[in-house]
Amino acid sequence: MNLIDALTSILVVAGAVFFLAGTVGLLRLPDVFTRLHALTKADNLGLGLVVVGVSLQMDAWQDAFKLIGIWFLVLVSSATVAHLIGRYALLHGYKPWEKEE
Amino acid sequence: MNDQPNGADEVVMFPRNLTQWSDMLLRLASFALLWFILNEGAMDSWILGVPVTIIATYASLHISPLRSWHIHPIHLTRFLLFFLQNTIVSSFDVARRVFHPDLPIQPALLRYKFRIKAETPRVIIANTTSLLPGTLSVDVTDDELLVHTLDETLPNAASLRRLEELVAKAYGLKLED
After folding, report:
1. Is residue B129 scored above 90 in pLDDT?
2. Would you place residue B35 in the very low, low, confident or very high pLDDT band (cuts 50, 70, 90)?
3. Domains of chain B: which residue ranges?
């Protein structure tokens, strides 16, 4: 295993940890709004790390750019979808969860 | 949709000045680069690639008219770095909170008044907000952004002001207070 392979492994595993964080957040957080926080943010970095890790394995730089393009599109769509779900929830009377003092 | 700060929103099918020419060429170059990447640099793909690039550039004029203002490359880079840094910070922040046994969150809603008037920068701000630490845009009204915050004890409004300033500078817009 050379240095590039080792780096790829580290980055992909680190990415998986953030995907796990997103899923743990989905299960543990109390309402739709807080869950959106976990999913949009943790999964974006998770995918970013996986993309960087896999990019290192590409022979041509075009392929690496293709992967980065995928990451960018996921970034834009997840931010947009999070906004739409949040807006729908708010307009349909979901009250954001609040901490009891 | 009024897309430009100066109010003109007609579809300009041919560039009229230097700014519009540079916008047109930038679009052409971007679509060509995209084609190049998607086809993995195959030279014979350009038989189709050249007409498709030109058609895509003209089609884009209908979705978003040619700019009549400058994008500042240095400020744009500064915004992109701010964005990249905050995406990373926010992921660590949210991961720390969900893995923590006590689940340390204190959510609240925050109303943020836009200082920017133009439509496109506002959309960029709303989308970027959701990727900053602890903020999620949930609604955009006439002049306000409704933000759900994961922890109201964080300086959320200050982060949003900073974001708005960076976007305004990248667009070469002045903010009024």
Report:
1. yes
2. very high
3. 1-69, 73-170
Supply the pTM of this predicted model: 0.84
Shortest Cα–Cα distance, B143 to chain A (Å): 16
Length of chain A: 101
**Six-digit token pair at B143?**
């002049």
d(CA B159, CA B83): 11
Q: What is the pLDDT of residue B7?
A: 44
CA separation for the pair B117, B4 (Å, rounded) = 9
Q: Distance, in angstroms, between B138 CA and closest chain A CA?
A: 5
Please answer yes or no on whether B94 and A41 come within 8 Å at the CB atom: yes
**Kind and range of the H or E run holding B100:** none
Check residues B115 and B15 and name the one with the higher pLDDT. Answer: B115
Contacts of B27 (CB under 8 A, 6+ apart): B57, B60
Strands (E), chain B: 108-113, 135-140, 144-149
Report the chain A residue with the minimal C-alpha distance to residue B91: A42
Which DSSP helix (H) or strand (E) runs through B40?
none
- pLDDT, average across residues B157-163: 94
Q: In chain A, which residue's Cα lies nearest the Cα of B98?
A: A25
Given an 8 Å threshold on Cβ–Cβ distance, is A69 in contact with B37?
A: yes
Spatial separation of the C-alpha atoms in residues B76 and A13, rounded to whole Å: 32
Please tell me the distance from the alpha carbon of residue A87 to that of residue B129, in angstroms, as a whole number: 14
For residue B37, list chain A residues with Cβ-Cβ distance below 8 A. 62, 65-66, 69
The Cα B41–Cα B44 span in angstroms is: 9
- What mean pLDDT is reported for chain A? 93
What pLDDT does A55 receive?
94
- Measured in angstroms, the CA of A6 and the nearest CA of chain B are apart by 22
